[in-house]
Amino acid sequence: MKYLLTAVLVASSLIVTACDSSLSTIEGGELRKRAYLCVIDTNMSTVDIQICSNIQRECKRRQDAGIFDC
């Protein structure tokens, strides 16, 4: 059971890392649109919540770099 939990944690961390890197290539307008949809959506699944969390993290990263896309 421990090995399964470890495997799931490693796989999910790799997926989150991959999602972050793909978000860094999204244009500002598209990122702004996705961030807005995350804010107005009231019925999100667990996957949608994780995606929105990654989008917010990318918005924050860009803001810290002086790029105000979101």
Q: Summarize this, please?
A:
With about 70 residues, the chain is mostly helical. It has 3 helices and no strands.
Secondary-structure blueprint of this entry?
Blueprint: H1 2-23, H2 28-40, H3 46-64
Description of the structure:
The chain has 70 residues and is an all-alpha fold. 77% of the residues lie in helices and 0% in strands. It is built from three helices and no strands. The protein has helices at 2-23, 28-40, 46-64. The longest helix is centred in the first third of the chain and has 22 residues, at 2-23. The mean pLDDT is 82.
Percent of residues in beta strands? Answer: under 5%
Uncertain residue ranges = none
Number of helices: 3
> Strand-and-helix sequence, N→C?
HHH
Helix content: over 70%
Largest sheet: none
Computed CA radius of gyration, to the nearest angstrom: 14 Å
Count of β-strands: 0
CA(first)-CA(last) distance: 41 Å
Computed structural class: mainly alpha
What sort of overall outline do the alpha carbons produce when their principal axes are compared? globular
Overall pLDDT confidence: 82
